[in-house]
Amino acid sequence: MGAWGFVGLAYGIVWGIILLYLISLKRRYNSAQAELDVLSSVEATDRDVKK
Amino acid sequence: MKKGAQPIKKRRGILGALALIAIAVGLYRGLAIAPPDAYQGQVQRIMYLHLPSILTAYLSYFLVFIGSGMYLWKREKRDDILAHSAAELGVLFTALTIIEGSIWGRPTWGVWWTWDARLTLTAILLLIYIGYLMLRSLIEDENRAASAAAVLGIIGFLDIPLIHMSVYWWRTLHQPPSILQPNKAPWENVHPSMLIALTISFVGFLLLYFYLLSLRYRFGEMRCEIKARRLARGG
Asked: Could you tell me which residues of chain A have a Cβ less than 8 Å from any Cβ in chain B?
């Protein structure tokens, strides 16, 4: 492999891993957000029932 | 949605956009404008990733150290969330540093890996914080897990001065600092164009880091909120 091959490999792997981490973090974030929204709506229903 | 969440989301978006711009400019300067190294040639361009990655990892472990210390002192959940978030990102950036170093080492040293003092201590740093993350998932009691992890987070940070000094204390294959030398200004050691590329790349990494940290921290907050609200509902 030539010098540019090593440079390309390093840049490709690094930005690839960062992108994968970002995607996984966004997924976890969105699923937590969705869970909070569900909890909020359930709590609101409970409050309405109590009234 | 939490009060004040929208402005924070907007600020996070701006931070992400700025990170993207700085990274793009850093890539352009590092790959197209900066000259190749006189001895190593084109392969030295890995430096524009390698140095910002490890400095970002050090910053992250410093935040773990601060967050852990504050948690042990004040027992506030937000400090623990900060330490946990920073540890996860520290592991990411340390792993990246080791991968980049390995790819850089192959054409310059002739090996992908060697048990050099700096490399070994960096691998130990990575293992300590992987242990930190595992510890958190292994102990069921959340407060106990946070306390044990905080102690490990503080102890693990002590490895960083060792990593920094390793190139002075032991005969290592890894070079000593070539930019930040005690008796010379950085611009006296490297070509100004290289220094500009490195600085922009580092700024890009920092902005990206704070963007990821903000996202990871909010995720940690939401998880705590979910647990607390479930508990309040009796589930």
From this structure: 1, 3-4, 6-7, 9-11, 13-14, 17-18, 21-22, 25-26, 28-29, 32-33, 35-36, 39, 42-43
Distance from C-alpha of A22 to C-alpha of B208, rounded to nearest angstrom: 10
Domain presence at residue B7: no
Instruction: Quickly tell me which residue has 């044990």 as its tokens.
Output: B148
For chain A, say whether B230 makes contact (Cβ under 8 Å): yes
| Tens of pLDDT, residues B110-146 | 999 999 999 999 999 999 999 999 999 999 888 999 9
Partners of residue B37 on adjacent β-strands: B41
pTM above the 0.90 mark? yes
Q: Which domain holds residue B224?
A: 47-232
* Of B135, B199, B177, B155, residue with least CA distance to B61: B155
Residue B144 covered by a domain? yes
Question: B92 to chain A: which residues are within 8 Å by CB?
Answer: 17-18, 21
Say if residue A9's pLDDT is above 70: yes
CB atoms within 10 A of CB B73: 10
Q: How many domains does chain B have?
A: 1
Give me A5's structure tokens: 């091959």
Is residue B56 within 8 Å of residue B205, measured between CB atoms?
A: yes
Considering only the beta carbons, identify the residue of B95, B104, B225 that sits closest to A10. Answer: B104
How far from the centroid of its chain's Cα atoms is residue B32's Cα?
26
Question: Residue B86: its pLDDT value, please?
Answer: 98
